[in-house]
Amino acid sequence: SHKFWDTQPVVRDIKDELEKGVQALQIASGKEGAAEKTSGYIKEQTVEGIRKEPYPLPAGFEWCVLDVNDAEQLDMMYNLLNRNYVEDDDNMFRFDYSRDFLKWAVCPPGYKVDLHLAVRAQKTGKLFGVITAIPQAMMVEGVKVEMVEINFLCVHKKLRSKRLAPVLIKEITRRVNLTGVFSAVYTAGVVLPGSIGCARYYHRSLQFKKLVEVGFTRVPSNQTMATAVKLNRVPSQPVTNGFRAMEERDVVGAHKLLMDYLANFKVYPFLTVDEFRHWILPKNKVVNSYVSTSADGTVENMCSFYHLPSSCVKHPTHSHIFAAYSYYNVATTVPLKQLMNDCLGQAKAEGQDVFNALNVMENDKFLHDLRFGMGDGNLNYYLFNWKCPDVQPEEIGLVLL
Ligand code: NHW
Ligand code: EN5
Questions:
Q1: ipTM of the complex in this document
Q2: Would the CB of 161 count as within 6 Å of ligand 1?
Protein backbone atom coordinates (compact mmCIF):
# COMPACT_ATOMS: atom_id res chain seq x y z
CA SER A 1 0.00 0.00 0.00
CA HIS A 2 3.00 2.31 -0.58
CA LYS A 3 2.79 3.21 -4.25
CA PHE A 4 6.10 5.08 -4.11
CA TRP A 5 8.10 3.32 -1.41
CA ASP A 6 7.33 -0.12 -2.88
CA THR A 7 9.45 0.89 -5.89
CA GLN A 8 12.48 2.02 -3.86
CA PRO A 9 15.57 0.09 -2.65
CA VAL A 10 14.61 -0.05 1.02
CA VAL A 11 13.98 -3.07 3.19
CA ARG A 12 10.19 -3.38 3.20
CA ASP A 13 9.62 -5.43 6.34
CA ILE A 14 12.87 -6.53 7.84
CA LYS A 15 11.44 -9.58 9.66
CA ASP A 16 9.53 -10.69 6.57
CA GLU A 17 12.57 -10.14 4.44
CA LEU A 18 14.97 -12.03 6.70
CA GLU A 19 12.60 -14.98 6.95
CA LYS A 20 12.26 -15.11 3.17
CA GLY A 21 16.03 -14.81 2.82
CA VAL A 22 16.75 -17.60 5.25
CA GLN A 23 14.15 -19.88 3.65
CA ALA A 24 15.49 -19.21 0.17
CA LEU A 25 19.04 -19.91 1.30
CA GLN A 26 17.99 -23.08 3.06
CA ILE A 27 16.30 -24.29 -0.12
CA ALA A 28 19.22 -23.24 -2.31
CA SER A 29 21.99 -24.70 -0.17
CA GLY A 30 20.01 -27.66 1.08
CA LYS A 31 21.23 -27.11 4.62
CA GLU A 32 19.89 -25.38 7.68
CA GLY A 33 21.39 -22.50 9.68
CA ALA A 34 22.69 -20.57 6.68
CA ALA A 35 22.06 -16.84 7.16
CA GLU A 36 21.79 -14.19 4.47
CA LYS A 37 24.49 -11.56 4.45
CA THR A 38 23.01 -8.62 6.33
CA SER A 39 25.13 -5.74 5.00
CA GLY A 40 25.58 -4.37 1.50
CA TYR A 41 23.67 -2.49 -1.17
CA ILE A 42 20.08 -3.55 -1.76
CA LYS A 43 20.52 -2.49 -5.39
CA GLU A 44 23.96 -2.40 -7.09
CA GLN A 45 24.38 0.64 -9.34
CA THR A 46 27.00 2.55 -11.33
CA VAL A 47 27.15 6.26 -12.20
CA GLU A 48 26.99 5.33 -15.92
CA GLY A 49 23.60 3.71 -15.39
CA ILE A 50 22.03 6.80 -13.83
CA ARG A 51 19.47 8.85 -15.74
CA LYS A 52 20.99 12.09 -17.10
CA GLU A 53 17.84 14.28 -17.27
CA PRO A 54 16.00 15.77 -14.29
CA TYR A 55 12.62 14.23 -13.50
CA PRO A 56 9.68 16.19 -14.95
CA LEU A 57 7.65 18.46 -12.67
CA PRO A 58 3.95 19.35 -12.96
CA ALA A 59 3.24 22.22 -15.39
CA GLY A 60 4.13 25.64 -14.00
CA PHE A 61 6.93 24.40 -11.72
CA GLU A 62 10.69 24.13 -12.20
CA TRP A 63 13.75 22.86 -10.35
CA CYS A 64 16.17 25.29 -8.75
CA VAL A 65 19.00 25.08 -6.26
CA LEU A 66 19.28 27.18 -3.14
CA ASP A 67 22.47 29.13 -2.54
CA VAL A 68 22.09 29.57 1.22
CA ASN A 69 25.03 31.98 1.25
CA ASP A 70 22.78 34.37 -0.65
CA ALA A 71 20.59 36.16 1.92
CA GLU A 72 17.54 36.26 -0.33
CA GLN A 73 17.63 32.54 -1.18
CA LEU A 74 18.27 31.63 2.46
CA ASP A 75 15.23 33.73 3.37
CA MET A 76 13.08 31.82 0.88
CA MET A 77 14.14 28.49 2.36
CA TYR A 78 13.71 29.79 5.91
CA ASN A 79 10.18 31.04 5.19
CA LEU A 80 9.02 27.85 3.46
CA LEU A 81 10.19 25.76 6.42
CA ASN A 82 9.02 28.20 9.08
CA ARG A 83 5.47 28.03 7.67
CA ASN A 84 5.29 24.45 6.36
CA TYR A 85 7.79 22.14 8.11
CA VAL A 86 7.30 19.53 10.87
CA GLU A 87 4.58 19.95 13.52
CA ASP A 88 3.72 17.82 16.55
CA ASP A 89 0.71 15.45 16.46
CA ASP A 90 -1.67 18.14 17.73
CA ASN A 91 -0.35 20.93 15.46
CA MET A 92 0.54 23.12 18.45
CA PHE A 93 4.23 23.57 17.67
CA ARG A 94 6.18 23.83 14.41
CA PHE A 95 9.97 23.64 14.04
CA ASP A 96 11.52 27.05 13.42
CA TYR A 97 15.10 26.33 12.34
CA SER A 98 16.96 29.68 12.31
CA ARG A 99 18.69 31.01 9.20
CA ASP A 100 22.13 30.55 10.77
CA PHE A 101 21.18 27.01 11.75
CA LEU A 102 20.06 26.16 8.21
CA LYS A 103 23.32 27.46 6.74
CA TRP A 104 25.29 25.36 9.23
CA ALA A 105 23.11 22.29 8.69
CA VAL A 106 23.46 22.15 4.91
CA CYS A 107 27.03 23.44 4.43
CA PRO A 108 29.40 20.97 6.14
CA PRO A 109 32.80 20.26 4.51
CA GLY A 110 32.27 18.86 1.01
CA TYR A 111 28.66 20.03 0.60
CA LYS A 112 27.29 20.54 -2.92
CA VAL A 113 24.92 23.40 -3.83
CA ASP A 114 23.37 21.07 -6.41
CA LEU A 115 21.99 18.98 -3.53
CA HIS A 116 20.15 21.92 -1.90
CA LEU A 117 17.23 21.23 -4.17
CA ALA A 118 13.99 23.19 -4.48
CA VAL A 119 10.86 23.44 -6.60
CA ARG A 120 9.59 26.89 -7.50
CA ALA A 121 6.72 28.38 -9.51
CA GLN A 122 8.00 29.33 -12.98
CA LYS A 123 6.13 32.65 -13.09
CA THR A 124 6.61 34.03 -9.58
CA GLY A 125 9.73 32.19 -8.40
CA LYS A 126 7.91 31.32 -5.17
CA LEU A 127 9.22 28.15 -3.42
CA PHE A 128 6.88 25.18 -3.09
CA GLY A 129 9.19 22.35 -2.09
CA VAL A 130 12.67 21.61 -0.79
CA ILE A 131 14.91 18.65 0.06
CA THR A 132 18.61 18.65 1.01
CA ALA A 133 21.42 16.10 0.95
CA ILE A 134 24.85 16.46 2.58
CA PRO A 135 27.73 13.98 2.29
CA GLN A 136 28.46 11.82 5.33
CA ALA A 137 30.28 8.50 5.60
CA MET A 138 28.46 6.18 7.98
CA MET A 139 29.60 3.15 9.95
CA VAL A 140 26.95 0.44 9.79
CA GLU A 141 27.77 -2.68 11.79
CA GLY A 142 31.51 -2.20 11.27
CA VAL A 143 31.29 -1.34 7.56
CA LYS A 144 32.14 2.16 6.33
CA VAL A 145 29.68 3.37 3.69
CA GLU A 146 29.70 6.64 1.76
CA MET A 147 26.22 8.10 2.19
CA VAL A 148 24.27 11.33 2.22
CA GLU A 149 22.09 12.56 5.04
CA ILE A 150 18.69 13.71 3.78
CA ASN A 151 16.88 16.47 5.65
CA PHE A 152 14.41 19.35 5.27
CA LEU A 153 12.01 17.54 2.91
CA CYS A 154 9.10 19.96 2.78
CA VAL A 155 6.14 20.58 0.48
CA HIS A 156 4.11 23.77 0.83
CA LYS A 157 0.80 23.12 2.64
CA LYS A 158 -1.13 24.22 -0.45
CA LEU A 159 0.52 21.51 -2.57
CA ARG A 160 0.17 18.55 -0.22
CA SER A 161 -1.02 15.06 -1.23
CA LYS A 162 -0.29 15.67 -4.92
CA ARG A 163 2.67 13.25 -5.02
CA LEU A 164 5.29 16.01 -5.21
CA ALA A 165 7.34 14.44 -2.37
CA PRO A 166 8.19 11.31 -4.43
CA VAL A 167 9.41 13.56 -7.27
CA LEU A 168 11.66 15.50 -4.86
CA ILE A 169 13.00 12.22 -3.46
CA LYS A 170 13.63 10.71 -6.91
CA GLU A 171 15.39 13.86 -8.15
CA ILE A 172 17.66 14.20 -5.10
CA THR A 173 18.43 10.47 -5.41
CA ARG A 174 19.40 10.94 -9.07
CA ARG A 175 21.66 13.91 -8.25
CA VAL A 176 23.30 12.07 -5.35
CA ASN A 177 23.80 8.96 -7.52
CA LEU A 178 25.57 11.11 -10.14
CA THR A 179 28.15 11.97 -7.43
CA GLY A 180 28.85 8.24 -7.03
CA VAL A 181 26.91 7.82 -3.77
CA PHE A 182 24.14 5.21 -3.66
CA SER A 183 22.95 5.11 -0.04
CA ALA A 184 21.36 7.57 2.37
CA VAL A 185 20.39 7.97 6.01
CA TYR A 186 17.49 10.02 7.38
CA THR A 187 15.07 10.23 10.28
CA ALA A 188 11.37 10.97 10.37
CA GLY A 189 8.57 11.11 12.91
CA VAL A 190 6.36 9.02 10.63
CA VAL A 191 6.63 5.27 10.01
CA LEU A 192 7.67 4.37 6.46
CA PRO A 193 9.26 1.33 4.80
CA GLY A 194 13.02 1.11 5.36
CA SER A 195 13.09 1.79 9.10
CA ILE A 196 16.09 0.29 10.91
CA GLY A 197 15.09 1.46 14.38
CA CYS A 198 12.90 3.72 16.44
CA ALA A 199 13.87 6.15 19.22
CA ARG A 200 11.71 8.11 21.67
CA TYR A 201 11.87 11.81 22.49
CA TYR A 202 12.27 12.79 26.15
CA HIS A 203 11.85 16.31 27.52
CA ARG A 204 13.36 18.09 30.54
CA SER A 205 11.60 21.32 31.55
CA LEU A 206 13.87 24.31 32.16
CA GLN A 207 11.17 27.03 32.21
CA PHE A 208 8.38 24.96 33.67
CA LYS A 209 5.78 27.73 34.01
CA LYS A 210 6.13 28.87 30.38
CA LEU A 211 5.94 25.27 29.13
CA VAL A 212 2.64 24.85 30.99
CA GLU A 213 1.33 28.15 29.59
CA VAL A 214 1.97 27.09 26.01
CA GLY A 215 0.55 23.59 26.54
CA PHE A 216 3.88 21.79 26.09
CA THR A 217 3.58 20.15 29.51
CA ARG A 218 1.18 19.99 32.47
CA VAL A 219 1.48 20.30 36.23
CA PRO A 220 1.42 16.70 37.53
CA SER A 221 -1.75 16.02 39.54
CA ASN A 222 0.26 15.36 42.72
CA GLN A 223 2.18 18.68 42.49
CA THR A 224 1.50 22.41 42.68
CA MET A 225 3.05 24.86 40.22
CA ALA A 226 5.48 25.97 42.97
CA THR A 227 6.70 22.44 43.77
CA ALA A 228 7.02 21.57 40.06
CA VAL A 229 9.07 24.74 39.46
CA LYS A 230 11.36 23.83 42.39
CA LEU A 231 11.79 20.24 41.24
CA ASN A 232 12.90 21.42 37.82
CA ARG A 233 15.66 23.74 39.05
CA VAL A 234 19.11 23.14 37.57
CA PRO A 235 22.60 24.04 38.88
CA SER A 236 23.70 27.50 37.74
CA GLN A 237 27.36 26.51 38.16
CA PRO A 238 28.76 23.28 36.66
CA VAL A 239 29.95 20.62 39.11
CA THR A 240 32.44 18.98 36.73
CA ASN A 241 35.98 20.29 37.34
CA GLY A 242 37.21 22.62 34.60
CA PHE A 243 33.93 22.42 32.65
CA ARG A 244 34.11 25.09 29.91
CA ALA A 245 33.07 25.84 26.33
CA MET A 246 34.92 23.81 23.69
CA GLU A 247 37.60 25.71 21.74
CA GLU A 248 39.68 25.11 18.62
CA ARG A 249 42.57 23.75 20.73
CA ASP A 250 40.26 20.93 21.95
CA VAL A 251 39.14 19.80 18.50
CA VAL A 252 41.68 17.04 17.78
CA GLY A 253 41.39 15.52 21.26
CA ALA A 254 37.60 15.80 21.45
CA HIS A 255 37.31 14.28 17.96
CA LYS A 256 39.30 11.23 19.09
CA LEU A 257 37.29 10.98 22.32
CA LEU A 258 34.03 10.98 20.35
CA MET A 259 35.09 8.61 17.59
CA ASP A 260 36.50 6.08 20.09
CA TYR A 261 33.18 6.31 21.94
CA LEU A 262 30.97 6.02 18.86
CA ALA A 263 32.76 2.78 17.91
CA ASN A 264 30.55 1.18 20.61
CA PHE A 265 27.44 1.63 18.47
CA LYS A 266 26.05 -0.22 15.44
CA VAL A 267 25.26 2.91 13.41
CA TYR A 268 27.25 6.13 13.69
CA PRO A 269 28.76 8.85 11.50
CA PHE A 270 32.41 8.47 10.48
CA LEU A 271 33.48 12.07 11.15
CA THR A 272 36.75 13.53 9.90
CA VAL A 273 38.43 16.14 12.12
CA ASP A 274 37.15 18.86 9.77
CA GLU A 275 33.59 17.52 9.93
CA PHE A 276 33.83 17.26 13.71
CA ARG A 277 35.01 20.88 13.91
CA HIS A 278 32.09 22.00 11.74
CA TRP A 279 29.45 20.08 13.71
CA ILE A 280 30.65 20.51 17.28
CA LEU A 281 32.58 23.79 17.78
CA PRO A 282 30.26 26.36 19.42
CA LYS A 283 28.24 28.62 17.10
CA ASN A 284 26.07 31.28 18.69
CA LYS A 285 22.40 30.17 18.96
CA VAL A 286 23.17 27.16 16.74
CA VAL A 287 25.33 24.68 18.67
CA ASN A 288 26.94 24.68 22.11
CA SER A 289 29.66 22.31 23.25
CA TYR A 290 31.64 21.90 26.42
CA VAL A 291 34.69 19.95 27.55
CA SER A 292 36.68 19.19 30.62
CA THR A 293 40.34 18.25 30.33
CA SER A 294 43.13 16.77 32.44
CA ALA A 295 45.97 19.06 33.57
CA ASP A 296 47.88 18.43 30.32
CA GLY A 297 44.88 19.39 28.18
CA THR A 298 43.68 15.87 27.29
CA VAL A 299 39.93 16.06 26.64
CA GLU A 300 38.24 13.69 29.10
CA ASN A 301 34.58 14.68 28.84
CA MET A 302 32.46 16.47 26.28
CA CYS A 303 28.80 17.34 25.89
CA SER A 304 26.83 19.33 23.35
CA PHE A 305 23.39 20.49 22.28
CA TYR A 306 21.91 22.26 19.27
CA HIS A 307 19.30 25.03 19.22
CA LEU A 308 15.99 24.29 17.54
CA PRO A 309 13.14 26.60 18.59
CA SER A 310 9.54 25.80 17.70
CA SER A 311 6.85 28.37 16.92
CA CYS A 312 3.77 28.15 19.09
CA VAL A 313 1.27 27.89 16.26
CA LYS A 314 -1.83 29.16 18.08
CA HIS A 315 -0.66 30.88 21.26
CA PRO A 316 -1.70 34.54 21.74
CA THR A 317 1.36 35.74 23.69
CA HIS A 318 4.20 33.21 23.47
CA SER A 319 5.59 33.07 19.92
CA HIS A 320 8.26 30.38 20.53
CA ILE A 321 9.53 27.69 22.79
CA PHE A 322 13.31 27.62 22.85
CA ALA A 323 14.55 24.05 22.81
CA ALA A 324 18.03 22.59 23.22
CA TYR A 325 18.52 19.11 21.71
CA SER A 326 21.08 16.73 23.18
CA TYR A 327 23.77 16.07 20.55
CA TYR A 328 27.01 14.13 21.19
CA ASN A 329 28.10 13.46 24.78
CA VAL A 330 31.03 11.43 26.15
CA ALA A 331 31.92 11.06 29.83
CA THR A 332 35.08 9.18 30.83
CA THR A 333 36.11 10.61 34.22
CA VAL A 334 32.75 11.67 35.68
CA PRO A 335 29.32 10.01 35.61
CA LEU A 336 27.38 10.83 32.41
CA LYS A 337 24.51 11.94 34.66
CA GLN A 338 26.69 14.62 36.27
CA LEU A 339 28.01 15.86 32.92
CA MET A 340 24.47 16.12 31.53
CA ASN A 341 23.21 17.93 34.62
CA ASP A 342 25.94 20.52 34.00
CA CYS A 343 24.79 20.61 30.37
CA LEU A 344 21.19 21.32 31.51
CA GLY A 345 22.47 24.27 33.54
CA GLN A 346 24.26 25.68 30.49
CA ALA A 347 21.15 25.26 28.30
CA LYS A 348 19.07 27.15 30.86
CA ALA A 349 21.71 29.90 31.07
CA GLU A 350 21.51 30.12 27.26
CA GLY A 351 17.81 30.95 27.53
CA GLN A 352 16.38 27.56 26.60
CA ASP A 353 12.91 26.57 27.87
CA VAL A 354 13.29 22.82 27.45
CA PHE A 355 16.07 20.27 26.92
CA ASN A 356 15.16 17.42 24.58
CA ALA A 357 16.95 14.11 24.19
CA LEU A 358 16.40 10.82 22.39
CA ASN A 359 16.86 7.48 24.14
CA VAL A 360 19.81 6.74 21.83
CA MET A 361 23.41 5.93 22.88
CA GLU A 362 23.64 5.81 26.69
CA ASN A 363 21.03 8.49 27.28
CA ASP A 364 18.81 6.05 29.21
CA LYS A 365 21.44 6.27 31.98
CA PHE A 366 20.40 9.84 32.86
CA LEU A 367 16.91 10.46 31.46
CA HIS A 368 14.97 9.25 34.49
CA ASP A 369 17.20 10.63 37.25
CA LEU A 370 17.55 14.05 35.61
CA ARG A 371 13.74 14.38 35.44
CA PHE A 372 13.17 13.94 31.73
CA GLY A 373 9.66 12.81 30.81
CA MET A 374 8.67 10.78 27.75
CA GLY A 375 7.29 12.89 24.92
CA ASP A 376 4.48 12.00 22.53
CA GLY A 377 6.84 11.85 19.53
CA ASN A 378 8.91 9.03 18.04
CA LEU A 379 11.89 9.29 15.77
CA ASN A 380 12.35 6.54 13.19
CA TYR A 381 15.81 5.95 11.69
CA TYR A 382 16.08 4.98 8.01
CA LEU A 383 18.67 3.69 5.59
CA PHE A 384 18.13 3.95 1.83
CA ASN A 385 19.82 1.25 -0.28
CA TRP A 386 21.84 -0.35 2.49
CA LYS A 387 20.93 -3.60 4.24
CA CYS A 388 20.92 -3.49 7.99
CA PRO A 389 19.20 -5.63 10.61
CA ASP A 390 17.02 -3.83 13.18
CA VAL A 391 18.90 -1.81 15.77
CA GLN A 392 17.75 -0.89 19.30
CA PRO A 393 17.83 2.81 20.25
CA GLU A 394 20.78 2.25 22.62
CA GLU A 395 22.71 0.80 19.67
CA ILE A 396 22.29 4.01 17.65
CA GLY A 397 25.21 6.48 17.77
CA LEU A 398 23.72 9.04 15.40
CA VAL A 399 21.84 12.29 16.03
CA LEU A 400 20.52 14.12 12.98
CA LEU A 401 19.41 17.76 13.05
S1 NHW B 1 11.37 14.05 8.11
C2 NHW B 1 10.44 15.52 7.85
C3 NHW B 1 9.63 15.48 6.61
N4 NHW B 1 8.91 16.75 6.44
C5 NHW B 1 7.77 17.06 7.06
O6 NHW B 1 7.19 16.26 7.76
C7 NHW B 1 7.27 18.47 6.84
C8 NHW B 1 5.79 18.58 6.78
N9 NHW B 1 5.24 17.71 5.75
C10 NHW B 1 5.44 17.91 4.43
O11 NHW B 1 6.08 18.84 3.99
C12 NHW B 1 13.07 14.63 7.81
C13 NHW B 1 4.82 16.87 3.50
O14 NHW B 1 3.79 16.21 4.17
C15 NHW B 1 5.87 15.85 2.97
C16 NHW B 1 5.13 14.79 2.14
C17 NHW B 1 6.87 16.55 2.07
C18 NHW B 1 6.60 15.15 4.10
N19 NHW B 1 9.79 10.88 4.22
O20 NHW B 1 3.74 14.36 -2.01
P21 NHW B 1 2.89 13.37 -1.30
C22 NHW B 1 13.41 14.51 6.36
O23 NHW B 1 13.47 15.50 5.66
C24 NHW B 1 5.70 9.57 1.35
C25 NHW B 1 9.71 10.07 3.13
O26 NHW B 1 1.53 13.17 -1.88
P27 NHW B 1 2.84 15.14 0.96
C28 NHW B 1 13.69 13.14 5.78
C29 NHW B 1 4.40 8.85 1.64
O30 NHW B 1 4.65 7.64 2.34
N31 NHW B 1 8.56 9.81 2.48
O32 NHW B 1 2.76 13.70 0.24
C33 NHW B 1 13.12 12.95 4.42
C34 NHW B 1 3.87 8.63 0.25
O35 NHW B 1 4.54 7.53 -0.36
P36 NHW B 1 3.82 6.09 -0.43
C37 NHW B 1 7.44 10.42 2.94
O38 NHW B 1 2.25 14.99 2.30
C39 NHW B 1 13.45 11.61 3.83
C40 NHW B 1 4.32 9.88 -0.49
O41 NHW B 1 5.41 10.44 0.30
C42 NHW B 1 7.47 11.26 4.05
O43 NHW B 1 2.30 16.20 0.09
C44 NHW B 1 12.99 11.43 2.41
C45 NHW B 1 3.21 10.89 -0.59
O46 NHW B 1 3.69 11.99 -1.28
C47 NHW B 1 8.70 11.48 4.70
N48 NHW B 1 8.83 12.26 5.78
O49 NHW B 1 4.42 15.39 1.13
C50 NHW B 1 13.41 10.14 1.80
N51 NHW B 1 6.22 11.71 4.26
O52 NHW B 1 4.82 5.17 -1.02
C53 NHW B 1 14.85 10.16 1.36
C54 NHW B 1 5.45 11.14 3.32
O55 NHW B 1 3.47 5.74 0.99
C56 NHW B 1 15.26 8.90 0.65
N57 NHW B 1 6.17 10.36 2.52
O58 NHW B 1 2.58 6.27 -1.29
C59 NHW B 1 16.72 8.88 0.25
C60 NHW B 1 16.98 9.82 -0.94
C61 NHW B 1 18.46 9.95 -1.29
C62 NHW B 1 19.08 8.68 -1.75
C63 NHW B 1 20.54 8.84 -2.20
C64 NHW B 1 21.29 7.52 -2.60
C1 EN5 C 1 14.35 15.33 10.98
N2 EN5 C 1 15.75 15.25 11.25
O3 EN5 C 1 6.27 15.40 17.78
C4 EN5 C 1 13.52 15.26 12.23
N5 EN5 C 1 7.72 16.49 19.06
O6 EN5 C 1 8.02 14.26 21.87
C7 EN5 C 1 12.05 15.31 11.90
N8 EN5 C 1 6.11 16.70 22.23
O9 EN5 C 1 7.71 17.96 21.35
C10 EN5 C 1 11.22 14.41 12.78
N11 EN5 C 1 1.25 17.13 21.07
O12 EN5 C 1 5.58 15.45 24.47
C13 EN5 C 1 10.59 15.10 13.93
N14 EN5 C 1 5.39 17.26 25.74
C15 EN5 C 1 9.63 14.27 14.71
C16 EN5 C 1 9.13 15.00 15.92
C17 EN5 C 1 8.06 16.00 15.59
C18 EN5 C 1 7.73 16.94 16.72
C19 EN5 C 1 7.16 16.21 17.89
C20 EN5 C 1 7.30 15.85 20.28
C21 EN5 C 1 8.38 14.90 20.72
C22 EN5 C 1 7.05 16.94 21.32
C23 EN5 C 1 5.87 17.57 23.37
C24 EN5 C 1 4.73 18.53 23.10
C25 EN5 C 1 3.44 17.81 22.84
C26 EN5 C 1 2.33 18.76 22.53
C27 EN5 C 1 1.09 17.98 22.21
C28 EN5 C 1 5.59 16.67 24.58
C29 EN5 C 1 5.20 16.56 26.98
C30 EN5 C 1 6.48 16.64 27.78
C31 EN5 C 1 6.30 16.25 29.23
C32 EN5 C 1 7.61 16.43 29.98
C33 EN5 C 1 7.48 16.06 31.42
C34 EN5 C 1 6.85 14.71 31.62
C35 EN5 C 1 5.61 14.48 30.83
C36 EN5 C 1 5.76 14.85 29.39
A1: 0.99
A2: yes
